[in-house]
Amino acid sequence: MKIGIVANGPTELVPDLSNYNKQIDIWIGVDRGTLCLVKQDIMIEHAIGDFDSTTYEQKIMINNHAKSIESYPIEKDKTDLELAIDKALEYNPKQIYLFGVTGGRMDHLLVNIQLLLPLLKQGVRGFVIDLYNELQLFYPGVHMVVKDDKYPNISFLPLTETVYGLTLKGFYYPLKNETVHLGSTLCISNKLLRNNGTFSFRSGILLLIKSRDSQQGPFM
């Protein structure tokens, strides 16, 4: 089971969701982000949020396109996105894709990236995807990275104080058994030499960021 969640980030950063529609089984819209799914004519299983950022007319559109509407008060202990993730987890998915969660307020961006951590702990592969980036968290082990022409640049950032034993194979800048500390720029902007490569580490939590070249125009 693969679930796509579209939140209320800037719409110009949301890619063409039809490119993901074939691989995603269930779509969940978050507040105004539901309108991205409506406009791209994608079936919506659930629309979740306080809908404080939608007009009366937009709420009618959402009601007409979503199978299920779950409204929450504005004042609550969880963000609309976290509530949507809770709903997604009821399906015991293998993967959850988060769209519309970047751009705008920095506090929302940082916490949205951190929401990948509870997914990782539950054995769910979580992705944050926008026009420019694809992000994923990893526990220690050996992991493969496949070349993606949309996101040719590859960076690794520690999300724990220290990541031990980081080894990169098949990359332009290889590493062997390196210790990388939080705040280090050692592993920024690498590239694969072939169609795939591997990275491995012994302890810590690592954020993989694949991004497009800055000189490229937005792709859909």
From TrEMBL:
It holds the Pfam family TPK_B1_binding. Its EC number is 2.7.6.2. InterPro entries: Thi_PPkinase (IPR006282), Thiamin_PyroPKinase_B1-bd (IPR007373), TPK (IPR053149), TPK_B1-bd_sf (IPR036371), TPK_catalytic (IPR007371), TPK_catalytic_sf (IPR036759). Keywords: ATP-binding, Kinase, Nucleotide-binding, Transferase. Residues 141-207 form the Thiamin pyrophosphokinase thiamin-binding domain. GO terms for biological process: thiamine diphosphate biosynthetic process; thiamine metabolic process. The keyword Kinase applies. GO terms for molecular function: ATP binding; kinase activity; thiamine binding; thiamine diphosphokinase activity. This is Thiamine diphosphokinase.
